[in-house]
Amino acid sequence: DKGNHRHFMAKEIYEQPIVVAQTLRAYLQRLEDKVTLPIPDFDLSVIKRVTIVACGTSYYAGMVAKYWFEQFARVAVDIDVASEFRYRAPVMEDGGLMIVISQSGETADTLAALRHAKAEGQTIAAVVNVPTSTMAREADLLLPTHAGPEIGVASTKAFTCQLAVLAALAANLAKAKGRMTPEEEKAIVAHLAEAPAALNDALGRDEAIEAMAGAVAGARDVLYLGRGTDYPLALEGALKLKEISYIHAEGYAAGEMKHGPIALIDEHVPVIVIAPSGPLFEKTVSNMQEVQARGGKVVLISDAEGIAAAGEGCIATIEMPKAHPLIAPIVYAVPVQLLAYHVAVAKGTDVDQPRNLAKSVTVE
Ligand code: F6R
Q1: If you write DSSP's letter for every residue of 122-150 in order, what string do you get?
Q2: Model confidence at 358, in pLDDT bands (50, 70, 90)?
Q3: Ligand 1 pocket, 155 CB below 6 A?
């Protein structure tokens, strides 16, 4: 049932405030200002190293999580797409935690990576949306997302729920490692608890995004740029756009532009820049200005402060609510999802069933 939405994808984008809240309820004890996991008996302090493996959108959630694990818990993280992980003789030391991330819990490459790591003695945690899935059964530790069934082939609400679980896991690991004071834990709980309302605010920009989608719908190629945790979001934005609108899109680390891709820039290539105000903003804006100096048409996704500072000269801006850096990746997922959605609708493609794609990829 699509409710009053035209497509499952739209319905699922709109469900995010509710399902992220639902997911966070399983990981936050708000009254006690504590982050917890639904695996109370497992001692995270023994974890020496983390390996993250996933595919597609779930892999991008893992890329965001790498920043969190390293920043909060100071635990080294190795991350790879599942189809590459198994074929590179990965070094897995004792005391390692392998985290698989999967909406379906059935993706063949991810499952094969899980089995390989398990045979190598790694502890396996599975962040999955289908609790009865094979990965859920075979993992040592089950960390469910509570996104509910995702029908649209393009993953949306599963992604933001994965981020919520991974943020909570990073905080729990930091706590177990003695790297988080009760005050810091309280602050993290408060920031994560703000995510559903911030998602709601982000959804409020839907009409503005629909109105500017025409600027992208006519393009043959689109670039997405971001730095830090906005880099995986740039990759996710490009993936969403290409899979449902069939426009060629690429995500790049903003600083990598001048090492090659800038040669692609001309007045026909829209460049979507994801840059919330904060410590990385100035650097990303200078990359954005390099694009503008070559005639590139920039769409800036930022908050009011960022847009006031750098919105001039952009062909469009998408204003997000001010979000704490911890929840910004969750909140900024919404505009990239909505942009891809409206571009696809404008192009008349089959949004929920894009060509050549299956919801669950069970072949390697
Ligand atoms: C993109 C998308 C795919 C999946 C990928 C992994 O919108 O849906 O890239 O993210 O096939 O699927 P799961 O998460 O089920 O392992």
Answers
A1: -EEEEEES-TTSHHHHH-SEEEE------
A2: confident
A3: yes
Question: Is 156 a pocket residue for ligand 1 (Cβ < 6 Å)?
Answer: no
List active site positions. Answer: 359
**Ligand 1 centroid, distance to 227 Cα (angstroms):** 23
Q: How far apart are CA 202 and CA 119, in angstroms?
A: 43
Binding site membership of 56 for ligand 1 (Cβ less than 6 Å): yes
Written as one letter, the residue type at 187 is: A
Task: From 83, 85, 107, 150, give the residue whose CB has the most ligand 1 atoms within 8 Å, as the site to mutate.
Answer: 107
Q: Which amino acid is at 310?
A: A
pLDDT tens-place string over residues 24-36 = 999 999 889 999 9
Nearest CA to ligand 1 atom 7: 154
CA distances, 250 to each of 225, 271, 303, 322 (Å):
9, 10, 23, 26
Nearest CA residue ID for atom 11, ligand 1: 56
Write down the mean pLDDT value for the chain: 95
Residue entry with tokens 């979507």: 272
- How confident is the model over 42-98, as pLDDT tens digits? 999 999 999 999 999 999 999 999 999 999 999 999 999 999 998 899 999 899 999
d(CA 185, CA 163): 17
The pick from 7, 55, 106, 138 for probing ligand 1's pocket by mutation, whose C-beta has the most ligand atoms within 8 angstroms, reads 55
Using the predicted structure, report yes or no on whether residue 269 has a pLDDT greater than 90. yes
AA letter at 220:
R
Kindly report the backbone phi and psi dihedral angles of residue 98, in degrees, each rounded to the nearest multiple of 5, phi listed first: -100, 125
Say if the ipTM goes beyond 0.90. yes
**Confidence band (pLDDT; 50, 70, 90) for 212?**
very high
Q: Is the CB of 361 within 6 Å of ligand 1?
A: yes
Element (H, E) at 101: strand 96-102
Atom of ligand 1 nearest to the CA of 154: 7
For residue 337 and ligand 1, the question of a CB distance below 6 A is answered with no
Distance CA 286, CA 300 (A): 13
Q: How far is CA 170 from CA 56, 86, 164, 174, 271, in A?
A: 21, 25, 10, 6, 32
Residue with tokens 């840059």: 275
Q: Considering only CA atoms, which of 338, 363, 20 is closest in space to residue 154? A: 338
Structure-token pair, residue 317: 């801006």
C-alpha 28: how far from its chain's center? Answer: 20
